[in-house]
């Protein structure tokens, strides 16, 4: 089992098929666990799924955007769906933060991959979620987009809780407050970063990813 406090940042590592994405789906109410209990923001995902979905955001390698809508139209659609207050002002704020204000009226299909992912970051933050899931969020990002993403995460970190799936050990350890390795659906390693022995972590990760134990 594990617990992540408000403001915590869990980096989740493991080989393909270890259960990382399944865990995020369980926490985000998309899949029911076969056993055990889950609490997200103090709520049971299966008794309070609508309430939890209003409190979570997702940034992944799939941007979840409509290509034939403009940047602004995408954010207005999601903002209306979540009932975001002062939506126009919130859209202005986020487009400026992700440096896309000058492309707000352009169709998403005309964006580069990095620009599309930056808009996906704005989409995920639009309704001010308290819990943010990041599924390989750096995939396909150019260095400038990576800087924007990590700057935004740093800005909102104090008031949010993060769970990030990543294969990038160095970046994952740099961002996290806790690190976990999943293997065959089980927790093979879980520790506060402050207590973490990086050499031991690298050795456990190497062995698990290669299936040596």
Reported for the largest beta sheet, the result is: 6 strands, mixed
Principal-axes shape call = globular
Secondary-structure-derived class? alpha/beta
Radius of gyration over all CA atoms, rounded: 18 Å
The helix content is 25-40%
Beta-strand portion reads 15-25%
Amino-to-carboxy terminus distance: 21 Å
Contiguous helical run count = 8
Domain count: 2
* CATH class categorisation of the largest domain: Alpha Beta
The CATH architecture designation of the largest domain is 3-Layer(aba) Sandwich
Unreliable stretches covering 5 or more consecutive residues: none
The CATH topology of the largest domain comes to: Rossmann fold
Major beta sheet, strand line-up: 2-3-4-1-5-6
Average pLDDT works out at: 88
* SS elements, strand count: 6
Output the helix-strand order: EHHEHHHEHEHEEH
Report the CATH superfamily of the largest domain: P-loop containing nucleotide triphosphate hydrolases
What does the model show?
It is a peripheral membrane protein. GO terms for molecular function: ATP binding; ATP hydrolysis activity. Belongs to the ABC transporter superfamily. Keywords: Antibiotic resistance, ATP-binding, Nucleotide-binding, Transport. Its main location: membrane. The chain is α/β, with parallel strands linked by helices and 213 residues long. The protein folds into two domains: 136 residues, P-loop containing nucleotide triphosphate hydrolases (Rossmann fold, 3-Layer(aba) Sandwich), CATH 3.40.50; 61 residues, no CATH class. Helix content is 38%, strand content 15%. It is built from eight helices and six strands. The chain has a six-stranded mixed β-sheet with strand order 2-3-4-1-5-6, sandwiched between helices. Strand 5 and strand 6 form a beta hairpin. Helix 3 crosses helix 4 and helix 5 packs parallel to helix 6. It is globular. The mean pLDDT is 88.
